[in-house]
Task: structure prediction
Amino acid sequence: MLPMPAFVEGRYLDVLAANPLATALSPRLVVGGNRLRDVFLDPAEQAMFPDFEAAAAGLVAGFRQAVGTATDDPRCIELVGELSSPARSSGDCGPATTCARGPARWCPSTTRRSASCASTGRSC
Result:
């Protein structure tokens, strides 16, 4: 076992492997979890970041880079849809992301997917 926390994530920030030290630091780092979902939807996970805004921006940037132009991939659509769900919305784009204004909030336009805030009638 590595003497330090380590985990492996896939293209969509799904946790593919994690050692016990990583899970001890963040209980959400378990196989089958999704770092993007956890950071945006779990207040306990958000509290682990001293600068949540920067962490959220970094995760969204990494997600965008990993997805590239594959925005029609079913996993991408599923994840963006879950994070963009009106049921999770708090008045604008959703529960959390990096929209141009205000605190980190999830906004589907950050993934360059065709279902942007403008097309959903929400404002960023």
The chain has a mean pLDDT of 75. DSSP finds six helices and two strands in the chain. Residues 52-67 form the longest helix (16 residues). Strands lie at 7-9, 15-18.
